[in-house]
Amino acid sequence: MEQRTAYLTFGGGVAVIAAILLGGQALLGIAMASDSIAALPPAIIGFAANLLLFGAIAALAAVMLAREHRLAGVAGPNPGRDAGLGLALGLAGVGLAAAQAIVAGTLTSATGANEAAWLLLGILAILVQAGGEEIAFRGWLQPLLARAAGPLPALLLPTLAFMAMHLVGGARAPLALVNLFLGGLWFALLAWRSGGIALPAAAHIAWNTTEQLLLGLDPNPGVGAYGALADFDLIGSAWWGGSDQGLNASLGTTAVLLALIVPLAVGRAPLAAHTPADRIS
User: Mean pLDDT across the chain, nearest whole number?
Assistant: First the structure.
């Protein structure tokens, strides 16, 4: 009965998250029909959309965690140490993927003027989005399944839902979807090994911030609404990022993620998998 309840709660949670994203996109389309809204800077519009959508997802997860008396421990037993390690891992991951693009000859520096006026707002947007995703998928849904069904469903099902969420958001290339699955699995393993979301959330934030705001690799080509400190583009072979999907659809990213996943996936189950953060107290 507990397993059935967990699966039903998981399915309901994923359905509500999908409804938030689809409903939010519909509302944004309606709002953009207004001249006064459409005239706002794209960075303001993007941040407001991020705050509403992923703020709502984070609030949903926080409410459910509070009902289960797990909100206080969701960051994990060592959040400060884990956050520092996660930032280093995310930065290194993007750096290694970009380095492989250099070797493949697909990384180039853009020649246009660079705009970085909205960087602080961009950082806040990434904090909201990555934080909302992590508390929902790795903080709430993953431990929910782990307690009732074991680690394998807990690692795989929220990861598939995470990938599907990005499919709704516009990811279409098969290799991009593979990499989104691998990225979600990496975050899931980081949460499982550490017993909380501080480690995966920091890695997620560092990866997105480095890719989008430091190197200007997402979107490809050009930079997003928030600008970037540098503006690198990926050209040439789509297998190494030279498409509109950029590093998300690069074999270099695949190789990096696999290298990050394998050490976490092998070996005995961690003690952190049995900490109070993964149980209803």
Answer: 90
